[in-house]
Design goal:
membrane; Vacuole membrane protein 1 isoform X1; transmembrane helix; mainly alpha; transmembrane
Amino acid sequence: MAENGKNCDQRRVAMNKEQYNGNFTDPSSMNEKKRRDREERQNIVLWRQPLITLQYFSLEILVILKEWTSKLWHRQNLVVSSLLLLAMLIATYYVEGAHQQYVQRIEKQFLLYAYWIGLGILSSVGLGTGLHTFLLYLGPHIASVTLAAYECNSVNFPEPPYPDQIICPDEEGIEGSISLWSIISKVRIEACMWGVGTAIGELPPYFMARAARLSGAEPDDEEYQEFEDMLEHAETAQDFASRAKLAIQNLVQKVGFFGILACASIPNPLFDLAGITCGHFLVPFWTFFGATLIGKAIIKMHIQKIFVIITFSKHIVEQMVAFIGAVPGIGPSLQKPFQEYLEAQRQKLHHKSETGAPQGENWLSWVFEKLVVVMVCYFILSIINSMAQSYAKRIQQRLNSEEKTK
């Protein structure tokens, strides 16, 4: 891999000496122009240039649709086979018969898996910024299952309505029969599917860096450029952030599969750098994805699950509520909404939700709902801005190409 890195540095130096009308351009002037173009694109956001941003966003969608249409047109056999398979599945779904019980079971499991895998992809996919679906969806789901398990003394929640709404089974469980392992087993599918989604969402940086390395091009991607700058200034890095990134790069590069596994198994915001490193040094796909899948969908997810389950176990929750009430001055006023919320959840679990929801539940639910709305809106805005900037990049590349041909 060290030899690969040396070859990459030589290729990058050669590419910086780009010929322009028979003369070699100054690499510093090229970097300055790239910096200005990047700053110009970064100003294309909804809160600064709303009309241009929306226009570029719409045009980028049309360009992507055109590209995908062209790709599908050149793969007509695959499209026809997919349409025939889809027609068979639709016919199987709507035709009455004894097979419908299996169809409904498969449909339920498919939707469950697709829901959590989709949330995992949204959490880590490189579209501007990820949606923190663990904090908004999976974490609260595990917490609600934990609270319900201790309240019901059972994890045998009836299906349906679980997981849409958790209701205690009619037969009462034995006090103290709930264990950490039983709750882990109850939420294992949701957590593992979410982890699979996060692993899939880590593939774009890997493929981007791999394609750039094989083609010899330099993609105008901030993370990739930061990675190349880090390689150039590896020996002089002094600040903590640079050293941390360099440590991850060295770990992945030197240790290989187990280095990727170690990076994927612990929550860290720098894993995109591991994907770029693997793509840049042409690490085999299944080595990268296999280690990422095991680390995120098995090891890391069990760490996160255990943390949430322990945090929301019955005695810990009671201690937290008591601690809130002990805060001088505002403690009792803050403690009351949490007590009312927990009581409301207990009533729902025991089929008593029709008695009415206390005010505390409405207050806490309102805050959480607004938080979810804000996070989703910010994620959508980031996608719009990212796609608009992508179209602006297309325009800049076309103008630069026209200048070179003059």
